[in-house]
Amino acid sequence: MALMLNRPFPPSIFLYVNLGDHDDYSGEYDSYYRVVGVNSARYSLLFYKFPESSVYTLGIGSNFPSKWVWAANPNDPVSDGAAIYLGEDGNLVLVDVDDRVVWQTNTANKGVVGLKMLEDGNMVLYDANDNFIWQSFDYPSDTLLPSQSLKAGLTTKLVSRASNTSHLEGNYTLEMSPKNVSLYYKSPNSPTPLPYYRIDQSFVPTFSKEFRYDVFVKDFDNPISSQTIQYTTTSSLSSSSQELVKTSYDSRLSLLRLEYDGKLRVHTFDPMIIGVWYEEFTLFKGEPLSRNQLGATECQMPEKCGNFGICYKGECVACPSPRGLMRWSEDCAPPTVGGNSGDDTDAKYYKMRGIRHFSCMYTEGEGPMKPRKCKIKCSNDPKCVGFFYDVDNLRCWIVYDLMTLTRTDNPNHLGYVKLSN
């Protein structure tokens, strides 16, 4: 340990080495943590680790009680003896115990004179005039705090965790593009992430510049009265807001998070009851709401039915097979399709009516196209495991992972599962 403490560091304004006892209180997900010393009344910079892990993430956690709201080094955790320092050149650097640079703000020689945590959870590097040179709000991980946003030209997405006890990033993202704000799933075999929900579908289409998590408090002297949590999309010409939930708690003590399961949730802290966060809003809970509200059925969740299954009214109800629809269980799996070099128009399929793939809702597919051509495209692609066809609009979707299929009331939504090449 002495060698870890005595190893040389560059001349620094601030230095903390990740050693010593953990805090007496456990953090979110029963994690252990060490407080770095950059904190406000509500938020702190910490090194935290999960119970079965020996490595740490440098992140920001709330103090009422802890929820992890930002991470510096997802996918690259560090060990005991790692260090975070603000060099005299103004660069904030995280190094592992072997002095490998894991993360940095790239702010050397830009006039930085200090580091501080603001009351809203934003960690900033500032210059002699108190201008912000760098701020954590510009680089969100899986969470947005009130007034925090995704901005065009900077980090334009949230990325879920792989699990509640993982330092790694997961398969779900909330992404802002110039045309919309959508949720995406990175399936195991698809060449690109697939959208499974559009956040701003109720708005007039604009070229978005910002997606902001907002709270509105009617009376700041009485923050328990008439509060609204909403999100706002802003373009160069206008902005539109959509209410998520009304709350009886202090909405300033809330967060919007893309969870490891792909659901978007709002959590709010009740200051009257120590240690309690309330789940105020969950996207994908129950049936879709009206068009001017944000909501969707769980059947739109890509992993709702695991590797394979048909979902209806939020429940996995059937396991498709060449013999028909069987009772669904977690063992439901698609046929194993042997690979070949393609060019096999004789591939075998079984057909389902009134079925769509989760990706069909928010992608246009290909077309207009006849069903035979759609079948040929899948048959000639050894990675294709099935295709979906909209008879009414002559659209074709080739898929590389089947996962959750949704039963619809339209018999002209056709699904074809490949049996063999």
What do we call the CATH topology of the largest domain? Agglutinin, subunit A
Could you name the CATH homologous superfamily of the largest domain?
Bulb-type lectin domain
CATH architecture type of the largest domain: Orthogonal Prism
Instruction: Work out the number of β strands.
Output: 32
Cα-to-Cα separation, first versus last residue: 60 Å
Helix content: under 10%
Shape: elongated
Mean pLDDT: 87
Strands across the major sheet, in which order? 26-25-24-31-28
Count of helical stretches? 2
Give the CATH class of the largest domain. Mainly Beta
Question: What's the structural domain tally?
Answer: 3
Largest sheet: 5 strands, mixed
Q: Indicate the radius of gyration in whole angstroms.
A: 24 Å
Report low-confidence residues grouped into runs of 5 or more.
none
Strand content: 35-45%
The SS-based structural class is: mainly beta
Protein name: Bulb-type lectin domain-containing protein
Keywords: Glycoprotein, Signal
Domain Bulb-type lectin: 10-138
InterPro entries: Bulb-type_lectin_dom, Bulb-type_lectin_dom_sf, G-type_lectin_kinases/EP1-like, SLSG/EP1
Write structural notes for this entry:
This protein is mainly β. It is built from two helices and 32 strands. The chain folds into three domains: 12-139, Bulb-type lectin domain (Agglutinin, subunit A); 176-293, no CATH class; 299-418, Hepatocyte Growth Factor. It starts with a helix and ends with a strand. Strand 15 (169-176) and strand 16 (181-185) form a beta hairpin. The strands form eight sheets. A five-stranded mixed β-sheet has the order 26-25-24-31-28, with no helix packed on it. A four-stranded antiparallel β-sheet has the order 1-6-7-8, with no helix packed on it. Helix content is 3%, strand content 42%.
